Amino acid sequence: MIRTRNSIITGAVAISFSAVLWGLDGVVLTPRLYNLNVFYVVFMLHAIPFLFINIFFAKQYAKIKIFSTEDYITLLIISLFGGAIGTLSIVKALFLINFQQLTVVILLQKLQPVFAIALASILLKEKLRKNFIMWGSIAIISGYFMTFGFKLPNFDSGVNTIYAALLALLAALSFGSSTVFSKKILNKYDYKTATFYRYGFTTVIMLIVLLVSGAYTQFNLTTSQNWLFFSIIALTTGSGAIFLYYYGLMRVKAIIATICELFFPSSAILFDYFVNGAILSTVQWISAVIMIFAIISLNAGNTKVSATK
């Protein structure tokens, strides 16, 4: 696609808005589903948007006839890591901290470019820039201080915080893996096809998990408020934000996308403050700024791989 000034502006606005929606989701929406089983929540977060996008993109089923075995494997990996494992990890992390330090969990998820670029070098044979190890290390170390400050992890009273931090890192690794394989599928198909089948395959994966675990009984425990949040997420921070993000990503370079994505953690901090009254400490603020700067610097030298949710 030829990038004109208007196209770049449109793309940047689309990515920025989708990032704000993800900040809203992580702080305000998904944590309000804490009364439900995490398997059931992740299934519904994919099943409802998938049913919704079927209304507009049912023609995508025609692609089944032209998919190769490699395409199916790639889409399955994208859905398994970017959809199932990644979402399960971040949702469980948000549930564990009981509305405390939501911003920290979301900021830790921003480490995914570190994993995405490292995996791209391994799986796609993309060459790493010489400063990758330095900036990647700085980002990860900053993530530690942002979570625990100058203290050692407390395995007694702070066990949930530790588990939440580890799950946020697993989410970052999973979403980073999905980014690498998404790049492969986007070389052959457009963003509509990639998004449609990512949600479709993830819905099937989580349906199997739901049936095996017995979590389908949660359907009877879903309150009217839960249904309201499921519906809002489906129309906004779910499929809506994903489509907006990919729409914008087609129009801008990766480094611009990375800068626009900073609306994600910055909006999360604001939402967490206004909704939950949460305030980061001085150490957390400094660590967050250093981590974000390191991630921008890392992406500036590796513009072929960008971070996606």
- SSE order, one letter for each helix or strand: HHHHHHHHHHHH
Could you describe the largest sheet, including whether it forms a barrel? Answer: none
Radius of gyration, Cα only, in angstroms? Answer: 19 Å
**Low-confidence spans:** none
DSSP, total strands: 0
Oligomer: single chain
The residue fraction in helices comes out at over 70%
Distance from first to last alpha carbon: 22 Å
- What coarse outline follows from CA principal-axis ratios? globular
Strand residue percentage:
under 5%
Would you tell me the overall average pLDDT?
83
Number of domains: 1
Could you say which structural class the secondary elements and strand pairing correspond to?
A: mainly alpha
Question: Helical element count?
Answer: 12
Describe what this molecule looks like in 3D.
This protein has 309 residues and is mostly helical. It has one domain (5-300). It has 12 helices and no strands. The longest helix has 28 residues, at 69-96. The chain is globular, with a radius of gyration of 19 Å.
